[in-house]
Write a structure and sequence with these properties.
The structure is a homodimer of 323-residue chains. Chain A is of the alpha/beta class. The first copy, chain A, has two domains: 222 residues, Rossmann fold; 91 residues, Rossmann fold (3-Layer(aba) Sandwich), CATH 3.40.50.1100. In chain A, α9 links the parallel β9 and β10. The radius of gyration of chain A is 18 Å and the shape is globular.
Chain lengths: 323, 323
């Protein structure tokens, strides 16, 4: 890792080390193709299916790298985070595999199913009020009381190096790509993709796909500095969080473009994937296919990797069931 | 094939020939595992995922074997069938690949989505009234006018030999099995499984799984002769059809037991598979997992193949959305 203006920037050596470290705890997920979707888009699409990953999402890569990179002394107090999504599940899973505690601060308003899932993986939940100030206050208390290692969902070099193992596998599993498209929220997956591809396949273009209704990364990309949204609302609930300095570093330096899709386009792409590929994936996975369908001039004739980031969806609340 | 009391009984040589014949037109579908479901059932489960098959179902194996086994002269007039389900889709797909017409007789009350799907694969639909007599009358007319080759959805030796390729792959993809569980409707998949396993792995027990509300195979199995239900109603809509003489031959001779599950158990098993395995499968695929969960004494400690037969489901009408 290199130290840049007080930020620790992970390097590709960190990705290689992460891959060795986490290999026993993660799946090498399959890459699926669909002749129907190839015909529809005019591109050749390679779907890296992290919905089949342990704990149901790519985030287990970064979380496992953080957990298993701790010294025994550091690990003794466990790990801690604030998240109500896949990072909480993934960190709980990884900590459980190592046999150390995982403390998760979650708003008390989070769905019961999410709380149950975190507890199912052995996570210890401390509830906060559904506000940033309460979350920070409660997290600081938990952190101080437990001495646990804080693993941020994405603004952490260990997490980004872990996420970088996904596109490393994708490149091994395909015979060359022209582009990779990944959804962007906080930017952990996109940063890991940038880190890996800028080293091993620098000619591959990297596109980030984002909901129009949470387009902070697109606006940041055009403005040249981080712009955070104020409480965006989108069906792609994993993509509401803003970029932070570490992920912005990668987006700014390596992403070709940030493309956006409307809510309707996201739901249509999600439904199309379920119908045609017969896989269960989250709404947050759908923006890449949505932007590929929306921008045929960018992708037609190209070999395109698409990261399907996770499959933890509430089957009783599917977006096309509305109304 | 051997001729038994005027029935043409396919042999394992027919399965080998079918496999060669259909290989260019079908997927060798993956076998997935789930550590969660293994823990839950106490068995080691190997899911053969025919939901990822061409046209979305195993039925494309038998349909392709029938279509590509025709001589050029026989093929000229195309093929014909009556079905509103996966056989109609699969036969249309296979005929399209060979470039010959496929005539499908369907009740005019069939969902528009199914008609569109058949037409999407190039099938030519002739509508009938939703009664057996109308279907037979209209089919006889279409058959006479076109001279097309009739490919029955399951009571056809070419179809059964084609379905037998599925368990042949499953045995190649796993390191030995104690049992295989497949859903049973008309018995095409179960018969193909019996045909293959009785030759290449005769110690593997074969279980057929069926909805309690359409338990004609279970009752036939106990009675020792075919009993057909009168218009059964079940969420597993692919399993409503009765056994016929050819499939009964295989069930009677090679099936260890026919186990049944209630509608609630089927829906629960379906939802569990979607949630944990992140795959989209039809209600008709769920009875095998339901009976494994229901009869732990039969399956615990065993290595069990489970045939996931198809993934063509109406995402806007999922069974857990009721009420």
């Amino acid at each position: 890792m290199t130290d840049l203006n007080e930020m620790i920037i992970p390097t590709f050596d960190d990705v290689i080390a992460a891959h060795e470290r986490i290999r026993p705890y993660i799946h090498r997920t399959p890459v699926l193709t669909s002749s129907y979707l190839n015909e529809l888009t005019g591109a050749e699409l390679f779907f890296k299916c992290e919905n089949f990953q342990k704990a149901g999402a790519f985030k287990v890569r970064g979380a496992s790298n953080a957990v298993f990179g701790l010294s025994d002394e550091q690990a003794r107090n466990g790990v801690a985070t604030h998240s109500s999504g896949n990072h909480a599940l993934s960190l709980s899973y990884a900590a459980g595999r190592r046999g150390i505690p995982c403390h998760v601060v979650m708003p008390r308003t989070a769905p019961q199913a999410k709380k149950d899932a975190v507890r199912g993986y052995g996570g210890i939940i401390t509830e906060c009020d559904p506000s940033t100030s309460s979350r920070e206050e409660v997290f600081a208390k938990v952190h101080a009381e437990t001495g646990a290692d804080f693993v941020h969902p994405y603004n952490d070099p260990r997490v980004i190096a872990g996420q970088g193992t996904c596109s490393r596998e994708l490149m091994e599993q395909t015979d060359g790509l022209d582009a990779v498209v990944a959804p962007i929220g906080g930017g952990g997956m996109v940063s890991g993709t940038c880190l890996t591809l800028s080293t091993i396949a620098p000619s591959v273009r990297i596109y980030a796909a984002e909901p129009e209704q949470a387009d902070d990364a697109a606006r940041s990309f055009r403005a040249g500095h981080i712009i955070a949204d104020d409480a965006p609302e989108t069906i792609a609930d994993g993509l509401k969080v803003p970029l932070k300095e570490l992920t912005w570093h990668f987006v700014k330096n390596h992403v070709t473009d940030v493309l956006t899709a409307s809510e309707d386009e996201i739901v249509a792409a999600m439904m199309l994937t379920w119908q045609r590929m017969k896989i269960v994936m989250e709404p947050s996975c759908a923006p890449p296919l949505a932007v590929i369908l929306k921008n045929p001039e960018v992708f037609r004739g190209k070999r395109v990797g698409v990261i399907i980031t996770g499959g933890n969806v509430d089957l009783k609340k599917l977006p096309w069931m509305k109304g």
